[in-house]
Design brief:
single chain, alpha+beta, Umud Fragment, subunit A, 21% strand
């Protein structure tokens, strides 16, 4: 008496490999974007900002997401790109590069800044109290997304993406378990005839 055993075959064709690689790459890209734009800044106390003007072209063109990490003002040097308040107490910020650090006779430090694309330095020197931090890293084009998404939407996105990743991991685990069970139930797999 012969038993008909239906074995589910994995898609090992070139198209199957391409689909698998593309899905893993998309997953990795999504996780990387989530980490760079939301998770890492939150864990390190950094702040993401969107570049809105062309004053820092070509380094940070409009639409770039910059992540600014708090920095001890005494550690800032010429060449550092910093984000600072235009005026003390005014929440509006600007990101420009320090071109000169000055110290007066009382030991007070000020920074002369200039946008990379600007022909001349900023008119007012920046005092340490205005500095929000030093640009840590940037992600091109992600600033547009950052500008559209609010804080509450970010929290919801994190929940959805993390939940989706857990569901995907569960799906992969169940699929692997099912494949292993099918192989162990297949009499042809262990070499025995019935």
């Amino acid at each position: 008496m012969s038993h008909a055993v239906q074995v589910e075959e994995q898609d090992t064709s070139v198209w199957g490999w391409v689909k698998s690689i593309v899905s893993w790459l998309l997953l990795l890209v999504l996780v990387a974007i989530l980490a760079l734009t939301i998770v890492i800044p939150r864990l390190t106390g950094s702040t993401p900002y969107t570049v809105l003007t062309g004053s820092m072209v070509p380094t940070y063109p409009p639409g770039t997401l910059i992540v600014v990490k708090p920095q001890d003002p005494a550690a800032l040097t010429a060449g550092d790109a910093i984000t600072f308040q235009k005026e003390s107490g005014n929440p509006e910020v600007v990101t420009h590069r320090i071109i000169m650090v000055r110290q007066n006779s009382q030991g007070e430090i000020t920074y002369v800044t200039q946008g990379d694309a600007n022909p001349s330095p900023d008119t007012n020197p920046v005092v340490p109290e205005q500095v929000r931090g030093k640009v840590w890293y940037s992600v091109p084009y992600m600033g547009y997304v950052n500008s559209v998404i609010t804080g509450q939407q970010r929290a919801m996105m994190i929940t959805i993406v993390v939940g989706g990743l857990f569901c995907y991991a569960g799906y992969m685990f169940v699929g692997a378990f099912r494949d292993r069970k099918n192989k162990s139930d297949d009499p042809a797999a262990d070499g025995s005839d019935t």
